[in-house]
Amino acid sequence: MGRNLLLNMADHGFAVVGFDKDAQKGATLESSASSGTTVKGVTTLAEMVQLLEKPRKMMMLVPAGKPVDDVINDLLPLLEKGDIVIDGGNSHYTDTLRRVTFMEGKGFHFMGVGISGGEQGARTGPSIMPGGDPEAYPFVQPILEAVAAKVGGVPCVAHLGKGAAGHYVKMVHNGIEYAIMQLISETYDLLHRGLGLDNDELHKVYRNWNDGELQSFLVEITRDIFLKVDEKTGNRLVDMILDKAGAKGTGKWTSQDAMDLGVPIPVIDMAVCLRELSAYKDERIQAAALYKNPSSDIPVPQEVFIQQVQDALFFGVIISYAQGLAMLHVASKELDMQIPMQEVVKVWRGGCIIRSSLLEVFFKAFQKNPELPNLLLEGEIAQLLQAKKQNMRNMIIHAIHMGYPVAGLMAALSYFDAYRSEKMPTNLIQAQRDYFGAHTYQRIDEPGIFHTEWNK
Ligand code: 6PG
């Protein structure tokens, strides 16, 4: 990823230096450079620092955690006041905040920058989410704008707020990424195990979806995955992959932080849980032997069911974005990050893993109201959800009836149904709390705090 980003910068006319202790990596960097560009690979930080123009602009792309602190410590004796150090990895925002304070105390600038798009995106145009130090941003802005993905000529990069805002926005981006991937996997299960579609048929279904309102990077790659042949066996590769999901942690961090903030994001939570459940392969094998397999008795014609699944996915995807963006809205205030929501959505329109044509609709929503607390409150989005609601319900009824797990889709629908409930059954919870713990309650007809001796 680091190499690709450097090559991208070089293609846009910037002279770049890549540091890696492994000389072979530096040689590969130099040999991959386009002719006429200035690209140098070095094996020591001292050489790198010496070659850079001041104020030096240095971006780290190393795994989150200790490796970031190690690089900072190695760099410290080589830096001069005003130098800019950027962490372009997926660091936890609390680490970024600590590093900002530490580096500023020493007279250096430190920025946490989220970068999305994977290796390919880094080469051709990623989505870039810088945050923090506003003084340092103008120095790196032209570079980031040049290399970022473009949508209608507009670069997918913007300064996204104070402190660790860049890494916070990237964390939530990844939470949404987890949610959408979970929902897509549930639709795959229904169509594959449920309907019995083979990989060629699945390819066609996802191709049709990607050609329509579900157009997005994740549906597009799903379409292509079904055609990939395993070189070893000649089978389709997707069928040869073990059903245990990995996770580097950013989805879990999103859920953990949402809990701390008191913002409900159940589709993201469920996506994290289901990746965790997938790891229990041995237990799942035992349980599968104990309980009956799901039936494939779908009570509607195939094309009707596929339409229901498509609409359910569209509905669930909107809810996933709504939850992530609602979380950002609250976090921006609670953590004093001043995140410009409209800019976040603008930056996500291209280059990143969660780019989709829906982002245009969300962009317009935040253009109308930058303080929109939840996408579900916006008229155009309400219409989209209303149009798909019934098919979402129908699909879930069939999935439950047959016994297929659709936890993410169900979480999306239940969130929707609870969010649009003027009256929730939480009055009963308050009564129970007061009954057993004298926790008090508020009344609907009178201000104040009340307690009742329920046993008297
Ligand atoms: C991106 C991705 C990228 C990475 C994830 C994978 O935006 O380019 O989100 O950051 O692929 O960290 O995360 P998991 O390993 O947790 O799935």
Automatic annotation (TrEMBL):
Quaternary data: Homodimer.
Active site: K170, E177
InterPro entries: 6-PGluconate_DH-like_C_sf, 6PGD_dom2, 6PGDH_C, 6PGDH_Gnd/GntZ, 6PGDH_NADP-bd, NAD(P)-bd_dom_sf, Pgluconate_DH
The keyword Cell wall biogenesis/degradation belongs to this UniProt entry's keyword annotation: no
Listed name of the protein: 6-phosphogluconate dehydrogenase, decarboxylating
Catalyses which reaction(s): 6-phospho-D-gluconate + NADP(+) = D-ribulose 5-phosphate + CO2 + NADPH
Lineage summary: Bacteria, Pseudomonadati, Bacteroidota, Chitinophagia, Chitinophagales
A single GO BP: pentose-phosphate shunt
MF GO annotations: NADP binding; phosphogluconate dehydrogenase (decarboxylating) activity
Organism of provenance: Puia dinghuensis
Pathway: Carbohydrate degradation; pentose phosphate pathway; D-ribulose 5-phosphate from D-glucose 6-phosphate (oxidative stage): step 3/3
Function: Catalyzes the oxidative decarboxylation of 6-phosphogluconate to ribulose 5-phosphate and CO(2), with concomitant reduction of NADP to NADPH.
Stretches assigned to the 6-phosphogluconate dehydrogenase C-terminal domain: 166-455
EC numbers, comma separated: 1.1.1.44
Source superkingdom: Bacteria
Residue sites binding substrate per the record: N90, S116, G117, G118, H173, N174, Y178, K248, R275, R433, H439
